[in-house]
Amino acid sequence: MPAASADLSARLTLALSAAREAGELTLRYYRQSGLAVEKKADLSPVTVADRQAELLLRERIAAAFPQDAILGEEFPEKPGESGFRWILDPIDGTKSFVHGVPLYGTLVGVEFEKRSVVGVIGLPAMNELVYAAVGQGAWLVRGDGAPERAQVSKTAKLSEGMFCTTSVSTFEKRGRREAYERLRAASGLSRGWGDCYGYALVATGRCEAMVDPMMNVWDTAALQPILEEAGGTFTDWQGNPTIYAPEAVATNGLVQAEVLALLKDL
Question: The domain spanning residue 127 has which CATH number?
Answer without folding.
Answer: 3.30.540.10
